[in-house]
Write a structure and sequence with these properties.
By secondary structure, the chain is of the alpha/beta class. The chain has a single domain, classed as 3-Layer(aba) Sandwich (Uracil-DNA Glycosylase, subunit E). It contains 8 helices and 6 strands. Strands 1-3-2-4-6-5 form a 6-stranded mixed sheet, sandwiched between helices. The protein is globular, with a radius of gyration of 16 Å. The N and C termini lie far apart (about 35 Å). The relative contact order is 0.16.
Length: about 230
């Protein structure tokens, strides 16, 4: 993959047909939106990562939301999880604005890149192991294409496990099965893995994840990545 690049990888991800169940689900969600999005045009495609190509920090989520990224065409865009995430990134200096509502809303990231373990919206937010395996090479390549990368933030246990697998792929090794926890840290070669609860409504509405808690993750990421 000598000619691999962020744009070529993004084009490949956007055309991926590897998981028939996910193809069917994302297209079904796009064709039958809830009333609040009636009449809106959904992208309904797999989503590449986005952000600063010189990022030192990679933020990894689970997968696009059926009526968030699957609708807008950008990860964590147009849903409550994204509202929570980018508000924190704005407060901590990673984003130029606190909201992410559409692919052309002017959002810019500084020092950060956003990605996911699975690139299609899955039913019930539960990808199958084979679907994760199909998608994992994209995350591996993204990490290779971010030359300044120093730290990975895993949003939730699924992203933590996926990041561990992706980090181990280039060397053909299996990193230690470090346990996920909020603000957990694992040193894996030149990369640090940092855990955070996922900014899903299940966590934010119940108080399991609060704005100060997510800000603490972002501040720690800046410290470990040498951004401050």
């Amino acid at each position: 993959m000598a000619s691999d690049s962020i744009p070529s990888l993004a084009a490949e991800v956007a055309a991926c047909p590897r998981c028939p169940r996910l193809v069917e689900w994302r297209e079904e969600a796009a064709a039958n939106p809830p009333a609040r999005f009636a009449g809106q045009r959904y992208l309904g495609r797999p989503l590449p990562g986005f952000g600063d190509p010189d990022a030192r920090v990679l933020v990894v989520g689970l997968a696009p939301a059926a009526h968030g990224g699957n609708r807008t065409g950008r990860l964590f865009t147009g849903d409550r999880s994204g509202d929570f995430l980018f508000a924190s990134q704005h407060r901590t200096g990673f984003a130029n604005q606190p909201t992410s509502t559409s692919i052309d809303d002017g959002l810019r990231l500084d020092g950060a890149y956003i990605s996911a373990v699975v690139r299609c919206a899955p039913p019930d937010n539960k990808p199958r192991p084979g679907e994760r395996a199909n998608c994992l090479p994209y995350l591996v390549r993204e990490m290779r294409l971010l030359p300044s990368l120093r730290l990975v933030i895993a949003l939730g246990a699924y992203a933590w496990d996926g990041a561990l697998r992706a980090i181990g792929k280039p060397a053909g090794t299996t990193p230690p099965r470090s346990a996920f926890a909020h603000l957990a840290e694992a040193q894996l070669g030149k990369l640090t893995l940092l855990g955070s609860y996922h900014p899903s409504q299940q966590n934010t509405f119940t108080g399991r994840l609060t704005p100060p808690m997510l800000d603490a993750v972002m501040v720690r990421a800046r410290e470990l990545a040498g951004l401050d």
